[in-house]
Amino acid sequence: MTLSLRTISREEHLAFIQSLPSASHMQVPSWADVKSEWRSERLGWFDTTGQLVGTALVLYRQLPKLKRYLAYMPEGPVINWFDPDLDRWMKPMLAHLKSAGAFSVKMGPPVVIRRWEAAAIKEAIAGKQAKRLRDVQATFIEPRAFEVSDRLRRMGWQQGEDGGAGFGDVQPRYVFQVPLAGRSLEDVHRGFNQLWRRNIKKAEKAGVQVYQGGYDELKIFHELYVVTAQRDGFRPRPLSYFQQMWKALSAEDPNRMRLYLAVHEGEVLAATTMLVVGEHVWYSYGASANHKREVRPSNAIQWRMLCDAYHLGASVYDLRGIGDSLDENDHLFGLIQFKLGTGGYAAEYIGEWDYPLNKLLHKALDMYMSRR
């Protein structure tokens, strides 16, 4: 059965996303308003009956001085990735993007290939059995994901030499998630390691209060976020980015973005943002002060977010990216160690893929990116 593809309205796009159990927050219509420095387009695939069966939010980044674009679909498109005839989705999409002036296409299929339960990772770290996550025997493997990768390669899609491992992709290939479906909050709490449970209790005893903030409190969040950036050595986004994100996402759905603040003795010590699309909830950005860490505001705020995600009917609480290194000396090891304490699982996506529509321009961009 052939599929046709055309530009769709914001209303059509949103209605389709709302009909699904979940989709990436980077594939909702309002994400285009968050990334306003990119030109954007909403695409829809239609079957022979005229029914909308898939969508994509495409972000176009123009090359300097040329009317040629990199077309990027973060954590998308939202299609049936396990369709044996993947070509019927990709062909019309590539033809459309080429006609729109794209010289290269980048996408991130939301397809999980492996999962590792927290216990398996802890065992590997304790026994120094593996240097990387992919060296640990997976708890769950999705054979269909390998088929998706094979089909994409046969069509001419490419991945970097490391296959997008770790933070090599624009979006993280490895994430840490806590399953909520079919569990009680007591089950979730019991799944935490002893240190996490102790820290949640410690925060409670110390009188740490967590509350949901609004647009005006984004300034408080941002002050802590800058402190965190200086401590962890990354470049912080400006306050205006978060204000734009709040306005754009909240206009689409008042519950799409939430802000949480952990307060101790009248002082905000930690703040986080949370994103919601259907049954999928993400811990998006986190920030914390350098002092009073002993009252454990970060554990308190995560527990509150998890509880709220549960009450919203979420099936998964997503702590987002982790590195794939299990080496205790690696600078990203602390990240996986902190998230492991929630007792969830690490998940590996099949990574981001590139399709060069103009090989010369694609190679030039590749060389430029590798030098940055």
TrEMBL record:
Presence of the UniProt keyword Nucleotide-binding in the record: no
One biological process term in Gene Ontology: peptidoglycan biosynthetic process
Gene3D superfamilies per UniProt: 3.40.630.30
Keyword Cell wall biogenesis/degradation carried by entry: yes
Keywords for this protein: Acyltransferase, Cell shape, Cell wall biogenesis/degradation, Peptidoglycan synthesis, Transferase
A family per Pfam: FemAB
Source taxon at top rank: Bacteria
Any one GO molecular function term: aminoacyltransferase activity
PROSITE patterns in UniProt: FEMABX (PS51191)
InterPro entries: Acyl_CoA_acyltransferase, FEMABX, PG_Glycine_Bridge_Synth
Family the UniProt entry places it in: Belongs to the FemABX family.
Protein's name according to its UniProt entry: Peptidoglycan bridge formation protein FemAB
Organism: Wenjunlia vitaminophila
Organismal lineage: Bacteria, Bacillati, Actinomycetota, Actinomycetes, Kitasatosporales
